[in-house]
Amino acid sequence: MSDAVVDVRELRKTFRVTEREEGLAATLRSFVRRHRKDVNAVAGITFRIDPGEVVGFLGPNGAGKTTTLKMLSGLLHPTEGEASVLGYVPWKRENAYLQRMTLLMGNRSQLVWDIPAADSFRVLQEIYRIPDGQFRASVSELTELLELQELVHKPVRNLSLGERMKVEFAAGLVHSPSVAFLDEPTIGLDVSMQVRIRRFVAEYNRRTGATILLTSHYMDDVVALCKRVVVIHRGRLLYDGPLADLAERMAPYKIITATLHDGAASSADLDTYGTVVSRDEGRVILRVDRNVAPERTARLVNDLGDRLADISVEDPPIEEVIDRVFTSEQTTVSA
Amino acid sequence: MIRTYRALLVASLQSAAQYRVQSVLWMLLEIIRPVIFLAAWVAVANSQGGQVGAYDVRDFAGYYISLTLVLQLVFSWNAYDFEYEVRMGRLSPKLLRPLHPIHYAVVENLVWKATTFIPLAICLAVVVVTFDARFRTTPAHLALFVPSVLLGAALSFFSGWVLATTAFWTTRVHAVSTLWDRGVFIFAGLIAPLALLPGPLQTLSLVLPFGYMLGVPAEILRGGVNVPTALLLIGGQAFWVVVFYFALQRVWRAGVRQYSAVGA
């Protein structure tokens, strides 16, 4: 018996799409005969999420992330496979399930455009049948966490994108869901607003213990919020495990940054230690095979002696790791 | 559910309050068609010695005024709104709430009718006086009008939703709904009172659902049919309401499975 909040087994979604070549002749032919093609948006993925986890769901555009979230929230029926969220089959969309989950999409609005958010919250209170006391507590908490005091009494159409996103968050969470699917929650927001939303998600998870599955193209979101990531590409699962191990598994190299006292001239002879990625004044960045990184670092320290002002050995930036994952054909790795 | 409806009504009224002028303009647009037909039939009647079939000029006025009122009380814009919501992905948040999306449409329809009723009533009063409209309405007709107009509204609403639900497959329902609107135009009593349609068209208007939406309640309100006939016609309305209600259940279930959450 599974105690996972989200339990996905061999989930598949195939869309049948119409294809045609460009040009007038092809257009005219398409009136009579259409070529259809099956596209495997999600090609059999399996993973579990335990209560209270915040998991990053990563993949390039078209990887199948949003399709998966739509299936898990109940918007889409899968072609094959099984999923259970909080013990419910999502696409049956039972009210008991809908009352305990939310899907927030960064580029979509669910608020009534012409009225203040506070009035939309009242509507949501009745739709979700939230008792008065719980509603007041929830709105008060969300108002405090998201700093909404000035915003909830203005018509939504008068809010800026960032303000609207904060209010959308409150609307999506006013019923205190146990599971939240967040699809690109910080898309289009400025850096300061992204940071606030990240802080809010982390705090919300800490306070409520809600389970969160998050997609984002901003790796800062993932690094700030997710200890664990699930990576999919072309509908298939590539990696499922700790974010910290992703680089180790997917990028077999380390980055050595050496800063030299005597400037760029003396960096010319560093090619023998690894692949020089960049040189900037006295600062040289080397890519070195993960297995030999300690030995090369020791050699560098030894050979450069007093010329070395500073040296650091790090995993490559997460963006670089992810890019490497998506641009190469990798087999499934599970941590 | 009553509390939910109250909350939705308040929100919908607040939205409607932002667009008062637009609402009145839409209402006037809705009135224009029947008034044009009224003017045309008055011209025809006058050219034929003041009578066409059983209708004289004052009867035509009574009929088209009743029809305009019924149109206002019965008609809904479901198909157009729904297509927009499916195409723009705005349906998705509604599908993920523990409330069937049909309830939002019910409330929006009620608010539209409520907010435009008074200006409509004023316009119709002017038309009544201008054309010296005749009504043969008895208390029995008034009593029968209530279920008849409710059934007409339910029929219009459910059939509109069945059409709208085709958006799950096609994303665009404009062509389907336009075809349906043409059916309404010919067979619902807009172009002419059902009793004046040529033989085969009149038979069709009683077989197809269109006439039961508008023409039947309008004739009952005007007192244009006797009570036994009115009861028979109300039976026809009830039949079509049941048909479209169950059709909607089936089509909705299948459509939601089909839904590809376009643009969501």
In short:
Chain A is of the alpha/beta class. Chain A has helices at residues 24-32, 65-73, 95-98, 117-127, 132-146, 161-173, 191-208, 219-225, 243-250, 293-304, 318-327, and strands at 6-19, 35-49, 54-58, 80-85, 101-105, 179-183, 211-215, 228-233, 236-242, 253-260, 275-280, 283-289, 308-314, 333-334. In chain A, the strands form 3 sheets. A 7-stranded mixed beta sheet of chain A has the order 5-6-7-3-8-9-14, with helices on both faces. Chain A has a 4-stranded antiparallel beta sheet with strand order 11-12-10-13, with helices on one face. Chain A has a 3-stranded antiparallel beta sheet with strand order 2-1-4.
Please describe what this structure looks like.
Chain A is α/β, with parallel strands linked by helices and 335 residues long. Chain A folds into 2 domains: 241 residues, P-loop containing nucleotide triphosphate hydrolases (Rossmann fold), CATH 3.40.50; 63 residues, Alpha-Beta Plaits (2-Layer Sandwich), CATH 3.30.70. Helix content of chain A is 35%, strand content 29%. Chain A is built from 11 helices and 14 strands. Chain A has a 7-stranded mixed beta sheet, with helices on both faces. A 4-stranded antiparallel beta sheet of chain A has the order 11-12-10-13, with helices on one face. In chain A, a hairpin with a 2-residue loop joins strand 11 and strand 12. In chain A, helix 5 packs antiparallel against helix 6. The longest helix of chain A has 18 residues. The C terminus of chain A is likely disordered. Chain B has 264 residues and is mainly alpha-helical. Chain B has one domain. Chain B contains 13 helices and 2 strands. Chain B has a two-stranded antiparallel sheet with strand order 1-2. In chain B, a hairpin with a 2-residue loop joins strand 1 and strand 2. In chain B, helix 2 packs across helix 6 and helix 7 runs parallel beside helix 13. The longest helix of chain B is centred in the C-terminal third of the chain and has 32 residues. The two termini of chain B are 27 Å apart. The model of chain B has no long low-confidence stretch (mean pLDDT 87). At the A-B interface, strand 5 and helix 4 of A face helix 1 and helix 5 of B.
